[in-house]
Amino acid sequence: MVLSVDVLENWENGCLIRGTHCGNHQMELAMWKICALLAALFAALTAILAKIGIEGIDSNLATGIRTIVVLVLIWGIVFVTVPLSDVKLLTTKNWTFLVLSGIATGLSWMFYFYAIQIGPVSRVAPIDKLSIALTIILAFVILGETVSWQVVVGGLLIVAGTLFMLWK
């Protein structure tokens, strides 16, 4: 899939970043797939760069440094793309679940960094990706999302693939 000029213009105009409607439903559908692929690419780079970067230092220190970089990067994007008045729109529910999500993210990063420090990243990363199958289950149980047979089979294949990679 190639980024068209329209997609890039809509990205630059912020309508796809902020979730507003751009008037082109097909473009919006394509954009989430592009963003998901980019997320996968950067997640893969994260694992490799982190494995190199944590050599000889405490994994919690490495996670702290990484967190500062993420903090500066994300808040820079927020200041450029989101009106500060939007902070007033946050509800108690927003705050509660974003804080809980942040705690879960921090714990995930800490365990992940320690695991790649002491283990081979080529084995740790697939185990970490079991989160995909767990997310499918939790989305069904907690969020009430419908799950197609393709998603169930895909989740089972992820679990089977992970177990196969761990089997000696």
Provide the residue-averaged pLDDT: 85
Helicity level, as a percent range?
over 70%
Number of discrete helical segments = 7
* Straight-line N-to-C gap: 37 Å
Number of domains: 3
Tally of strands: 0
Radius of gyration: 19 Å
How would you sum up the major sheet?
A: none
Principal-axes shape call: globular
The chain-level structural class is mainly alpha
SSE topology string: HHHHHHH
Report the sheet-strand fraction.
under 5%
Query: Uncertain runs with pLDDT below 50, 5 residues or more?
Result: 1-8, 11-20
Q: What does the model show?
A:
- By secondary structure, the protein is mostly helical.
- Helix content is 75%, strand content 0%.
- It has helices at 5-13, 25-53, 59-81, 92-118, 121-128, 130-141, 149-166.
- Helix 3 (59-81) packs antiparallel against helix 4 (92-118), helix 4 (92-118) runs antiparallel to helix 5 (121-128) and helix 6 (130-141) runs antiparallel to helix 7.
- It is globular and about 55 Å long.
Secondary-structure topology with pairs:
Elements: H1 5-13, H2 25-53, H3 59-81, H4 92-118, H5 121-128, H6 130-141, H7 149-166
Task: Describe the structure in brief.
By secondary structure, this protein is mainly α. Helix content is 75%, strand content 0%. Mean pLDDT is 85; it is low at 1-8 and 11-20.
Question: Keywords for this structure?
Answer:
168 residues, mainly alpha, 3 domains, 7 helices, 75% helix, 0% strand, globular, disordered N terminus
